[in-house]
Amino acid sequence: MAKNVFGVPNMGEKIDGADFIVRKNSPEVLDRLDQIGTEGQALLQSGNPSRRWALLRTLLLTMGVLLFTVGIFNANKAGAFSFFGIFQTSPVLMIVAVVSIVLAVVMMVVERKRMKKAGQSEALAEWKTRSKEAEAEAFDALKVPQDAILMDLLTATYAMKNGAPKNVTYTAFDFHAWVENGCLCLADVENVVALPLNQIKGISELPGKTYFYFWNKKEPPESESYRQYNIRRTYLGAYSVKGVRAAHIRSDFGEYELLVPPYELESFLHLTGKAIRFSETEGQG
User: Fold this and answer.
1) Which of 1, 21, 31, 265 has most Cβ atoms within 10 angstroms of its Cβ?
2) pTM above 0.85, yes or no
């Protein structure tokens, strides 16, 4: 069974296609990126409400709704089911209910203002600048060319059970992609993976829908640029799409595959010079 080049088994750190790695970033560069990432999380969390604040807001809202429900029940029982009847039959309950709900709403408004203020703070803007600079330096250290394109591929995490992958979770990751010395090169901030084009033996379409997490493009899936792919968001937060392609790789290290979402197929084939043939069951359209 072919392995995903960017598959990671059992929540490990080493990708299945580690043998294709040709360049790695230094620990110093990665440590700096980790430090900046930690600082960013702290800045974003500074605008979030505390647990006590969130708990109090939830309790007030819940209490208000429950008391209002009791008031409706009492009014209905007394045969005075109307807006004014509710207050006449249970005046104290209704006053407490209204005050609780109003306080909960006020707390929500305050939370949103705090989060908005944190998102627009000078500290966060400065952090974003430093983060972009550190990321650019990381790619420079890996010798990623300026004309490299950003291309989504589906990475995978899974658990091995009885010699087969189970509970596979796909995530869209935007790699810097370019061709160098007859190889398709794919880079994140840590590594550069180089796949010889002459070892990519074909491309086929996966059956049915593929579910994946994260959307990296600036335009949303429902925008005009991506509407044709009929990408849907599930209630669990994943995305579903038909037409994901598997580019098959046959190398000295074994058999591997790259999973290409349909909205990246044209870029993928253009980048590789359309040197990859389709399977017998799929035409080039």
Assistant:
1) 265
2) no
